Each structure stands twice: as C-alpha cells, then as structure tokens.
Automatic annotation (TrEMBL):
This is Isochorismatase. Transmembrane segments: none annotated. Gene3D superfamilies: Isochorismatase-like. Coiled coil: none annotated. PANTHER family: ISOCHORISMATASE HYDROLASE, PEROXYUREIDOACRYLATE/UREIDOACRYLATE AMIDOHYDROLASE-RELATED. It comes from the Bacteria. One of its GO terms (molecular function) is hydrolase activity. InterPro entries: Isochorismatase-like_dom, Isochorismatase-like_hydrls, Isochorismatase-like_sf. Residues 8-183 form the Isochorismatase-like domain.
Amino acid sequence: MDANNQNTALLVMDMQVAVISNYPDYNEITANVAKAMAFARAQDIPVYFVTVGFRPGMPEVSMNNKILAASKQRAANLSMEGLMKIDDAVAPLPGEIIITKRRVSAFTGSDLEVVLRAQGIQHIMLTGVATSGVVLSTLREAADKDYLITVLSNCCTDSDPEVHRVLTEKVFPHQATVITLEEWSNKQ
C-alpha cells in the first residue's frame, strides 16, 4: 500500500439506504465504513462518495442490462432522489464530493476519473456494497487504469458471505492490497 496520503482517496460506494438496507449486516457495515471515513479524514485523505443514480424513468438503463433492467422495473414510479440518499451513518460532510454513476462500476457513466486525475489521486481505497458488484467492477476498471488499489475487506459486504470471502481472499489480491480497517489504521 502506498504510504503517501497525498495521492490517496477513500471511496465510499453505493452506501445508499435503498441499497444497503437489503443486507443483514447493514449496521455492522455502516459502522465500519463510518470508522474508515473518520480515520481517512483524520489523515487528511479525501473521502469521495459514489452513488448510483438515474433520471426519472431511468432512460439511461437499457432493458438489455440484466442487473439494472430489474431495478428499472421496480423503481419506475419511485423518486430518484429517495433512491440516491446516502445512509446518515456514512453521510458526506459539507463540501465532500459525491459522484453519480450510471452502472455498476464507479467509473462507468460518471466523472470519477476526471475528479481523481484533477486531484492527483493515484491510490484508491475501496469500501461499499456489494463486494461482487461495485467493489469488483470498480477494482477491475481501476486496475486497467493503473491505479494503486486497496480494498478494506470489512468495509465491504455481499449478500453471499462465501462470494465476499472468495473475492477478498482469492480474486482481489491479484490486483489490489486487501486489508481490514484495523490493519489500515494500525499501519498509519
């Protein structure tokens, strides 16, 4: 892991009430991410929030997209503002950047890369829901874009604990450093 905090950012991804309330470890994951955010801020590491969001009626979503098409049908008559609300336990501070994405990866359909490059960020630390969704997709794309990547394993969760375990223990280490929040905070 890059020790230089000057070019590091913590990404808090898909921690929206509409997303994380579906997970049984909701309180544990929000508590861990909140601790990671507090630690990052204390180290002068910027915290960027990534949310998934769409226009009313979700015109950005093709019915060919298996994951998002199901959401489009369920959310057809719901307020997009309500769906994009970040959980209060991990809410941004005034002035912190919120990035809206249109697909699973934090990079796809967003200005994340523009923000990271403008701020000189070369190392991203990933947190969020789900491990097999936004974390996996963002990690893969970030690796292809030559970012240094750290995954805080206990600041991510998945609906299937075995999938989370396999990704964090067997797949992610090929492209990222995988550590716990406690390991990160004890190294600084």
